[in-house]
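Forum > Structural Biology > Help requests

Title: Can anyone predict the 3D structure of Oncoprotein-induced transcript 3 protein-like isoform X2?

Hi all, first post here. I have the sequence for Oncoprotein-induced transcript 3 protein-like isoform X2 but no way to get a structure on my laptop. I'd be grateful if someone could post the C-alpha cells.
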Amino acid sequence: MFPIWMRDPIPSVSDGIVDREVCRMGANDSCEETMTIKVKNCQTFRVYYLIRTNGCPKAYCFGNKNETASGHCVCPKPGTTGNAHTSKTPSPTDDIVIN
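Reply #1:
Sure, ran it for you. C-alpha cells for Oncoprotein-induced transcript 3 protein-like isoform X2 below:
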C-alpha cells in the first residue's frame, strides 16, 4: 500500500477552509505524487475533504508518520469511510471526519 500524507501544516481556526498538499509516498519513502485536499480546523475537531485516489493500492493515513513503530502506514482497507473520534487530549490529527 502506498500511504498518502499531508505535507502542509494543519490550518488555524481563523484560516477557514484551506487547500493543503498531500503526498503519495513511493517505495523509497519519497514523494511520488502530490494532490490537493481541503481542510478546515473547527477547533475541537478537523474536517478533511479527501479526493478519490486514482488507483490502488493507495490510502490516506492519519497520525504522526514519525511515531509509527515500523515506519509504515497502518490504514483501513481502501474505500473505507467513517468517523474517527477521540476523548484524549487533542493532537493535530486526533479528531478526523472522513467522507
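The radius of gyration is 13 Å. Strands lie at 2-6, 17-25, 31-41, 46-49, 58-60, 82-84, 96-98.
Shout if anything looks off.
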